[in-house]
Amino acid sequence: MSTTINETHDPNLRSWVESANDPNTDFPIQNLPFGVFRRAISDESPRIGVAIGNQILDLAGCAREGLFKEDETAWAQYVCDEYSESLNPLMLQDITYWAELRKRISELLSASNNEIQNNPVLIESLFVPNAEAELLLSTEIGDYTDFYASVYHATNIGKMFRPDQPLMPNYKWIPIGYHGRASSIVSSGTPVRRPFGQTMADGADAPSFGPSKVLDYELEVGFFVGHGNEQGQPIPITEAEDHIFGLCLVNDWSARDIQRWEYQPLGPFLAKSFATTISPWIVTTEALAPFRAPAFKREEGDPQPLPYLDSPENRERGGFDIKLEVLLLTEKMREKGIAPHRLAMSNTKDLYWTFAQMLTHHSSNGCNLRPGDLLASGTVSGATKDSQGSLIELTERGTNPITLPTGEERRFLQDGDEIILRGYCERDGFRRIGFGECRGKILPAVA
Hints:
The protein is an alpha+beta fold and about 450 residues long. The chain is built from eleven helices and 26 strands.
Protein backbone atom coordinates (compact mmCIF):
# COMPACT_ATOMS: atom_id res chain seq x y z
CA MET A 1 0.00 0.00 0.00
CA SER A 2 1.22 3.53 -0.69
CA THR A 3 -0.20 6.84 0.42
CA THR A 4 -2.63 8.52 -1.93
CA ILE A 5 -4.15 11.98 -2.25
CA ASN A 6 -7.45 12.28 -0.36
CA GLU A 7 -9.76 14.82 1.31
CA THR A 8 -7.10 15.78 3.88
CA HIS A 9 -5.02 17.31 1.05
CA ASP A 10 -7.84 19.50 -0.30
CA PRO A 11 -6.25 22.96 -0.84
CA ASN A 12 -9.59 24.61 0.01
CA LEU A 13 -9.75 22.96 3.42
CA ARG A 14 -9.52 25.59 6.16
CA SER A 15 -9.02 25.34 9.89
CA TRP A 16 -10.73 27.22 12.68
CA VAL A 17 -7.18 27.69 14.05
CA GLU A 18 -6.71 30.89 12.08
CA SER A 19 -2.89 30.87 11.99
CA ALA A 20 -3.09 27.59 10.03
CA ASN A 21 -4.70 29.47 7.12
CA ASP A 22 -1.69 31.76 6.65
CA PRO A 23 -0.31 30.90 3.17
CA ASN A 24 3.25 31.12 4.53
CA THR A 25 2.85 28.78 7.47
CA ASP A 26 4.72 25.48 7.45
CA PHE A 27 1.84 23.85 9.29
CA PRO A 28 -1.53 24.27 7.54
CA ILE A 29 -4.29 21.75 8.16
CA GLN A 30 -3.02 19.84 5.11
CA ASN A 31 0.23 19.01 6.95
CA LEU A 32 -0.39 17.91 10.59
CA PRO A 33 3.10 16.71 11.55
CA PHE A 34 3.66 14.77 14.77
CA GLY A 35 6.06 15.59 17.58
CA VAL A 36 6.62 15.44 21.33
CA PHE A 37 6.49 18.53 23.54
CA ARG A 38 5.84 20.02 26.94
CA ARG A 39 5.29 23.55 28.18
CA ALA A 40 8.59 25.39 28.45
CA ILE A 41 10.01 25.87 31.96
CA SER A 42 7.65 23.33 33.48
CA ASP A 43 7.81 19.90 35.07
CA GLU A 44 5.10 18.52 32.79
CA SER A 45 5.59 15.09 31.29
CA PRO A 46 6.33 15.00 27.55
CA ARG A 47 3.36 14.19 25.35
CA ILE A 48 2.45 13.75 21.70
CA GLY A 49 1.29 16.78 19.78
CA VAL A 50 0.43 17.88 16.26
CA ALA A 51 1.56 21.22 14.83
CA ILE A 52 -1.25 23.38 13.43
CA GLY A 53 -0.37 26.95 12.45
CA ASN A 54 1.42 28.51 15.42
CA GLN A 55 -0.23 26.13 17.88
CA ILE A 56 0.28 22.57 19.11
CA LEU A 57 -2.71 20.27 19.56
CA ASP A 58 -2.22 18.05 22.61
CA LEU A 59 -3.18 14.52 21.52
CA ALA A 60 -2.98 13.17 25.07
CA GLY A 61 -5.58 15.78 26.00
CA CYS A 62 -7.72 14.75 23.05
CA ALA A 63 -7.55 11.16 24.26
CA ARG A 64 -8.57 12.17 27.79
CA GLU A 65 -11.51 14.12 26.38
CA GLY A 66 -12.68 11.05 24.46
CA LEU A 67 -12.16 12.61 21.03
CA PHE A 68 -10.77 9.36 19.59
CA LYS A 69 -13.60 7.06 20.63
CA GLU A 70 -14.94 6.38 17.13
CA ASP A 71 -14.34 2.82 15.96
CA GLU A 72 -11.67 3.89 13.46
CA THR A 73 -9.50 5.65 16.06
CA ALA A 74 -10.42 3.97 19.34
CA TRP A 75 -6.90 2.50 19.45
CA ALA A 76 -5.51 6.06 19.65
CA GLN A 77 -7.14 6.53 23.07
CA TYR A 78 -4.52 4.13 24.42
CA VAL A 79 -1.51 5.06 22.30
CA CYS A 80 -1.79 8.84 22.62
CA ASP A 81 -2.67 8.97 26.31
CA GLU A 82 -0.98 6.34 28.44
CA TYR A 83 2.08 6.03 26.21
CA SER A 84 2.37 9.64 25.15
CA GLU A 85 6.04 10.37 25.92
CA SER A 86 7.27 9.21 22.51
CA LEU A 87 5.89 8.36 19.08
CA ASN A 88 7.23 4.81 19.10
CA PRO A 89 3.91 3.12 20.05
CA LEU A 90 2.15 5.14 17.34
CA MET A 91 4.82 4.20 14.80
CA LEU A 92 4.31 0.54 15.68
CA GLN A 93 0.80 0.66 14.18
CA ASP A 94 -0.08 -0.22 10.60
CA ILE A 95 -0.11 2.45 7.89
CA THR A 96 -3.93 2.31 7.74
CA TYR A 97 -4.10 3.30 11.43
CA TRP A 98 -1.83 6.30 10.82
CA ALA A 99 -4.15 7.42 8.02
CA GLU A 100 -7.27 7.05 10.20
CA LEU A 101 -5.74 9.10 13.01
CA ARG A 102 -4.61 11.83 10.63
CA LYS A 103 -8.09 11.99 9.10
CA ARG A 104 -9.68 12.31 12.55
CA ILE A 105 -7.30 15.11 13.57
CA SER A 106 -8.08 16.88 10.29
CA GLU A 107 -11.80 16.64 11.10
CA LEU A 108 -11.34 18.07 14.60
CA LEU A 109 -9.38 21.05 13.26
CA SER A 110 -11.56 21.72 10.21
CA ALA A 111 -13.50 25.00 10.15
CA SER A 112 -16.71 23.03 9.61
CA ASN A 113 -16.29 20.98 12.82
CA ASN A 114 -17.59 22.27 16.17
CA GLU A 115 -16.34 19.59 18.56
CA ILE A 116 -13.59 21.86 19.91
CA GLN A 117 -13.84 25.28 18.32
CA ASN A 118 -16.95 26.48 20.22
CA ASN A 119 -15.63 25.40 23.62
CA PRO A 120 -13.15 27.98 25.05
CA VAL A 121 -12.36 25.79 28.07
CA LEU A 122 -11.51 22.84 25.82
CA ILE A 123 -9.38 25.03 23.56
CA GLU A 124 -7.45 26.31 26.57
CA SER A 125 -6.70 22.78 27.75
CA LEU A 126 -5.86 21.24 24.35
CA PHE A 127 -3.68 23.88 22.71
CA VAL A 128 -0.24 25.24 23.55
CA PRO A 129 1.32 28.08 21.50
CA ASN A 130 4.40 26.81 19.73
CA ALA A 131 6.38 29.73 21.19
CA GLU A 132 5.57 28.52 24.71
CA ALA A 133 6.55 24.88 24.14
CA GLU A 134 9.74 22.91 24.52
CA LEU A 135 10.06 20.60 21.52
CA LEU A 136 11.74 17.31 22.35
CA LEU A 137 13.07 14.29 20.51
CA SER A 138 9.90 12.68 19.22
CA THR A 139 11.05 9.08 19.35
CA GLU A 140 13.27 6.72 21.26
CA ILE A 141 15.83 6.17 18.51
CA GLY A 142 17.34 2.73 18.90
CA ASP A 143 19.41 2.79 15.73
CA TYR A 144 20.59 5.42 13.26
CA THR A 145 21.89 4.78 9.74
CA ASP A 146 23.25 7.49 7.47
CA PHE A 147 23.32 6.92 3.73
CA TYR A 148 25.32 8.58 0.93
CA ALA A 149 22.47 8.90 -1.55
CA SER A 150 23.33 12.09 -3.48
CA VAL A 151 25.45 11.27 -6.52
CA TYR A 152 26.36 14.95 -6.81
CA HIS A 153 27.68 15.08 -3.25
CA ALA A 154 29.52 11.78 -3.66
CA THR A 155 31.09 13.03 -6.89
CA ASN A 156 32.09 16.39 -5.40
CA ILE A 157 33.77 14.74 -2.43
CA GLY A 158 35.34 12.08 -4.61
CA LYS A 159 36.95 14.67 -6.88
CA MET A 160 38.72 16.19 -3.89
CA PHE A 161 40.38 12.95 -2.85
CA ARG A 162 40.29 10.76 -5.98
CA PRO A 163 40.22 13.10 -9.01
CA ASP A 164 40.79 10.20 -11.41
CA GLN A 165 37.96 8.13 -9.93
CA PRO A 166 35.45 10.33 -8.03
CA LEU A 167 32.87 7.55 -7.62
CA MET A 168 33.80 4.13 -6.35
CA PRO A 169 32.70 1.26 -8.65
CA ASN A 170 29.91 0.15 -6.31
CA TYR A 171 28.18 3.54 -5.92
CA LYS A 172 25.63 3.20 -8.73
CA TRP A 173 24.81 -0.39 -7.79
CA ILE A 174 24.25 -0.19 -4.05
CA PRO A 175 22.88 2.35 -1.55
CA ILE A 176 25.97 3.12 0.54
CA GLY A 177 25.51 3.82 4.25
CA TYR A 178 27.11 3.53 7.67
CA HIS A 179 25.80 2.85 11.15
CA GLY A 180 25.69 6.13 13.09
CA ARG A 181 25.49 6.92 16.77
CA ALA A 182 21.91 7.15 18.07
CA SER A 183 22.82 8.37 21.57
CA SER A 184 24.14 11.73 20.33
CA ILE A 185 21.09 12.66 18.23
CA VAL A 186 19.59 15.89 19.59
CA SER A 187 16.53 17.99 18.84
CA SER A 188 16.65 21.35 17.09
CA GLY A 189 17.94 24.17 19.26
CA THR A 190 20.31 22.02 21.30
CA PRO A 191 23.82 23.59 21.32
CA VAL A 192 26.57 21.51 19.75
CA ARG A 193 29.98 21.39 21.43
CA ARG A 194 33.04 21.51 19.16
CA PRO A 195 34.56 18.04 19.38
CA PHE A 196 38.07 16.97 20.31
CA GLY A 197 39.79 14.41 18.19
CA GLN A 198 42.95 13.06 16.67
CA THR A 199 44.10 14.82 13.48
CA MET A 200 47.12 14.62 11.20
CA ALA A 201 48.41 17.93 9.83
CA ASP A 202 49.96 18.07 6.38
CA GLY A 203 53.68 17.38 6.65
CA ALA A 204 53.47 16.24 10.28
CA ASP A 205 55.26 13.12 11.50
CA ALA A 206 52.62 12.21 14.06
CA PRO A 207 48.99 13.05 14.81
CA SER A 208 47.92 15.51 17.51
CA PHE A 209 44.89 15.61 19.79
CA GLY A 210 42.76 18.72 20.22
CA PRO A 211 39.62 20.60 19.12
CA SER A 212 38.52 20.13 15.52
CA LYS A 213 39.54 23.07 13.32
CA VAL A 214 37.50 21.97 10.31
CA LEU A 215 33.90 21.71 11.52
CA ASP A 216 31.15 21.32 8.94
CA TYR A 217 27.41 20.70 8.59
CA GLU A 218 25.57 18.34 6.25
CA LEU A 219 22.12 19.17 4.86
CA GLU A 220 20.09 15.96 4.98
CA VAL A 221 16.59 14.53 5.19
CA GLY A 222 15.83 11.62 7.48
CA PHE A 223 12.96 9.17 7.71
CA PHE A 224 11.62 7.16 10.63
CA VAL A 225 10.80 3.48 10.49
CA GLY A 226 7.25 2.66 11.54
CA HIS A 227 6.48 -0.98 12.15
CA GLY A 228 9.60 -3.01 11.49
CA ASN A 229 10.45 -6.51 10.34
CA GLU A 230 11.44 -9.75 11.99
CA GLN A 231 15.14 -10.56 11.97
CA GLY A 232 15.88 -12.64 8.90
CA GLN A 233 12.82 -11.34 7.00
CA PRO A 234 13.74 -8.69 4.38
CA ILE A 235 11.25 -5.98 3.41
CA PRO A 236 10.49 -6.09 -0.34
CA ILE A 237 10.61 -2.86 -2.32
CA THR A 238 6.86 -3.11 -2.98
CA GLU A 239 6.17 -2.92 0.78
CA ALA A 240 8.95 -0.57 1.87
CA GLU A 241 6.87 2.60 2.09
CA ASP A 242 4.35 0.91 4.37
CA HIS A 243 7.20 0.87 6.91
CA ILE A 244 8.06 4.59 6.65
CA PHE A 245 6.19 6.76 9.15
CA GLY A 246 7.47 10.17 8.14
CA LEU A 247 10.35 12.51 7.37
CA CYS A 248 12.40 15.14 9.20
CA LEU A 249 15.39 17.43 8.57
CA VAL A 250 18.83 16.22 9.65
CA ASN A 251 22.14 18.03 10.21
CA ASP A 252 24.88 15.43 10.39
CA TRP A 253 27.64 17.57 11.92
CA SER A 254 31.07 16.53 10.64
CA ALA A 255 34.61 17.25 11.87
CA ARG A 256 36.42 17.00 8.55
CA ASP A 257 39.96 16.99 9.96
CA ILE A 258 39.13 14.13 12.33
CA GLN A 259 37.31 12.36 9.50
CA ARG A 260 40.24 12.72 7.13
CA TRP A 261 42.59 10.93 9.55
CA GLU A 262 40.28 8.17 10.78
CA TYR A 263 38.01 7.27 7.85
CA GLN A 264 40.26 4.67 6.25
CA PRO A 265 39.83 1.75 6.19
CA LEU A 266 36.47 1.53 7.99
CA GLY A 267 34.67 4.85 7.46
CA PRO A 268 33.02 7.49 9.69
CA PHE A 269 33.53 7.22 13.44
CA LEU A 270 34.33 10.00 15.96
CA ALA A 271 34.19 12.66 13.24
CA LYS A 272 30.41 12.28 13.18
CA SER A 273 29.35 10.62 16.45
CA PHE A 274 29.58 13.76 18.63
CA ALA A 275 26.23 15.23 17.48
CA THR A 276 23.44 14.91 14.91
CA THR A 277 20.61 17.45 15.02
CA ILE A 278 17.10 16.67 13.79
CA SER A 279 13.99 18.82 13.39
CA PRO A 280 11.29 18.15 16.02
CA TRP A 281 8.28 17.68 13.71
CA ILE A 282 7.83 14.50 11.68
CA VAL A 283 5.95 15.14 8.44
CA THR A 284 4.07 11.96 7.53
CA THR A 285 4.38 10.30 4.15
CA GLU A 286 0.64 10.78 3.76
CA ALA A 287 0.99 14.56 4.11
CA LEU A 288 3.67 14.40 1.42
CA ALA A 289 1.50 12.46 -1.07
CA PRO A 290 0.93 15.50 -3.35
CA PHE A 291 4.68 16.10 -3.56
CA ARG A 292 5.87 12.77 -4.88
CA ALA A 293 8.29 12.65 -7.80
CA PRO A 294 9.82 10.02 -10.06
CA ALA A 295 12.98 8.31 -8.89
CA PHE A 296 16.23 9.93 -10.04
CA LYS A 297 16.63 9.67 -13.81
CA ARG A 298 19.87 7.84 -14.37
CA GLU A 299 22.29 8.86 -17.09
CA GLU A 300 22.63 6.73 -20.20
CA GLY A 301 25.08 3.99 -19.42
CA ASP A 302 24.33 3.90 -15.69
CA PRO A 303 23.27 0.47 -14.41
CA GLN A 304 19.62 0.02 -13.56
CA PRO A 305 18.81 -1.05 -9.98
CA LEU A 306 18.97 -4.77 -9.33
CA PRO A 307 15.51 -6.39 -9.24
CA TYR A 308 15.21 -6.34 -5.43
CA LEU A 309 15.64 -2.52 -5.54
CA ASP A 310 13.27 -1.90 -8.42
CA SER A 311 9.51 -1.65 -8.96
CA PRO A 312 7.25 0.30 -11.34
CA GLU A 313 5.82 2.36 -8.46
CA ASN A 314 9.27 3.25 -7.15
CA ARG A 315 10.37 4.37 -10.60
CA GLU A 316 7.23 6.47 -11.11
CA ARG A 317 6.84 8.09 -7.66
CA GLY A 318 9.57 6.88 -5.34
CA GLY A 319 11.08 10.36 -4.95
CA PHE A 320 9.98 13.43 -3.01
CA ASP A 321 9.99 17.04 -4.20
CA ILE A 322 11.25 18.74 -1.03
CA LYS A 323 13.03 22.07 -1.34
CA LEU A 324 15.83 22.44 1.20
CA GLU A 325 17.87 25.41 2.32
CA VAL A 326 20.74 25.97 4.73
CA LEU A 327 21.44 29.31 6.41
CA LEU A 328 24.26 30.61 8.60
CA LEU A 329 23.95 33.08 11.49
CA THR A 330 27.20 34.27 13.06
CA GLU A 331 27.69 36.06 16.38
CA LYS A 332 28.52 39.28 14.51
CA MET A 333 25.38 39.01 12.38
CA ARG A 334 23.35 38.38 15.53
CA GLU A 335 24.80 41.46 17.24
CA LYS A 336 24.05 43.66 14.23
CA GLY A 337 20.53 42.32 13.77
CA ILE A 338 21.36 40.87 10.34
CA ALA A 339 19.14 38.04 9.11
CA PRO A 340 20.65 34.57 8.60
CA HIS A 341 22.57 34.26 5.32
CA ARG A 342 21.48 31.56 2.89
CA LEU A 343 24.38 29.35 1.89
CA ALA A 344 22.67 26.91 -0.47
CA MET A 345 19.41 25.39 -1.68
CA SER A 346 18.89 21.83 -2.87
CA ASN A 347 16.10 19.32 -3.46
CA THR A 348 15.54 15.69 -2.54
CA LYS A 349 14.63 14.99 -6.17
CA ASP A 350 18.39 14.89 -6.72
CA LEU A 351 18.91 11.81 -4.54
CA TYR A 352 20.23 8.93 -6.60
CA TRP A 353 18.51 6.39 -4.34
CA THR A 354 14.94 6.65 -3.01
CA PHE A 355 14.02 6.21 0.64
CA ALA A 356 12.22 2.98 -0.23
CA GLN A 357 15.40 1.64 -1.85
CA MET A 358 17.45 2.62 1.21
CA LEU A 359 15.06 0.83 3.57
CA THR A 360 14.77 -2.25 1.35
CA HIS A 361 18.52 -2.54 0.99
CA HIS A 362 19.02 -2.04 4.74
CA SER A 363 16.77 -5.02 5.48
CA SER A 364 17.88 -7.14 2.50
CA ASN A 365 20.33 -9.18 4.56
CA GLY A 366 17.68 -9.87 7.18
CA CYS A 367 18.58 -6.90 9.40
CA ASN A 368 15.61 -6.16 11.67
CA LEU A 369 14.43 -2.53 11.66
CA ARG A 370 12.38 -1.27 14.60
CA PRO A 371 9.86 1.51 15.25
CA GLY A 372 11.68 4.81 15.77
CA ASP A 373 14.85 3.83 13.89
CA LEU A 374 16.20 6.81 11.95
CA LEU A 375 17.60 6.49 8.43
CA ALA A 376 19.09 9.59 6.78
CA SER A 377 19.80 10.45 3.16
CA GLY A 378 23.33 11.75 3.49
CA THR A 379 24.15 15.24 2.22
CA VAL A 380 21.60 16.44 -0.33
CA SER A 381 23.53 18.31 -3.03
CA GLY A 382 22.49 19.26 -6.53
CA ALA A 383 24.33 19.75 -9.80
CA THR A 384 25.02 23.48 -9.35
CA LYS A 385 27.40 25.32 -7.03
CA ASP A 386 24.57 27.01 -5.10
CA SER A 387 22.94 23.64 -4.36
CA GLN A 388 25.83 22.00 -2.52
CA GLY A 389 24.83 20.84 0.95
CA SER A 390 28.07 21.20 2.92
CA LEU A 391 30.87 23.71 3.41
CA ILE A 392 33.55 21.31 2.25
CA GLU A 393 31.86 21.46 -1.15
CA LEU A 394 30.91 25.16 -1.16
CA THR A 395 34.39 26.32 -0.15
CA GLU A 396 36.19 23.66 -2.20
CA ARG A 397 37.80 22.11 0.86
CA GLY A 398 38.43 25.53 2.40
CA THR A 399 40.35 27.01 -0.54
CA ASN A 400 37.54 29.35 -1.65
CA PRO A 401 35.98 31.02 1.43
CA ILE A 402 32.44 32.37 1.54
CA THR A 403 32.01 36.11 2.21
CA LEU A 404 29.10 37.00 4.50
CA PRO A 405 27.05 40.24 4.65
CA THR A 406 29.20 41.45 7.58
CA GLY A 407 32.40 41.04 5.56
CA GLU A 408 33.31 37.93 7.55
CA GLU A 409 34.69 34.93 5.73
CA ARG A 410 33.99 31.28 6.38
CA ARG A 411 35.91 28.28 5.19
CA PHE A 412 34.41 26.13 7.94
CA LEU A 413 32.32 26.79 11.05
CA GLN A 414 33.54 28.92 13.94
CA ASP A 415 32.39 28.99 17.55
CA GLY A 416 29.14 30.94 17.89
CA ASP A 417 27.98 30.09 14.36
CA GLU A 418 24.43 28.78 14.10
CA ILE A 419 23.30 26.58 11.22
CA ILE A 420 19.60 26.63 10.28
CA LEU A 421 18.06 24.05 7.96
CA ARG A 422 14.62 24.52 6.41
CA GLY A 423 12.50 22.38 4.13
CA TYR A 424 9.17 22.83 2.39
CA CYS A 425 7.03 21.50 -0.47
CA GLU A 426 5.13 23.48 -3.09
CA ARG A 427 3.00 22.36 -6.03
CA ASP A 428 0.28 24.05 -8.06
CA GLY A 429 -3.15 23.01 -6.84
CA PHE A 430 -2.02 22.12 -3.29
CA ARG A 431 -1.18 23.94 -0.07
CA ARG A 432 2.44 24.61 0.72
CA ILE A 433 3.64 22.54 3.69
CA GLY A 434 6.91 22.69 5.59
CA PHE A 435 9.13 20.96 8.12
CA GLY A 436 9.86 23.85 10.48
CA GLU A 437 13.49 24.50 11.34
CA CYS A 438 16.47 22.41 12.37
CA ARG A 439 18.89 24.66 14.28
CA GLY A 440 22.17 24.17 16.10
CA LYS A 441 24.73 26.64 17.49
CA ILE A 442 28.42 25.75 17.89
CA LEU A 443 29.86 26.10 21.40
CA PRO A 444 33.61 26.14 22.12
CA ALA A 445 35.37 22.88 22.89
CA VAL A 446 35.86 22.02 26.55
CA ALA A 447 38.76 19.83 27.60
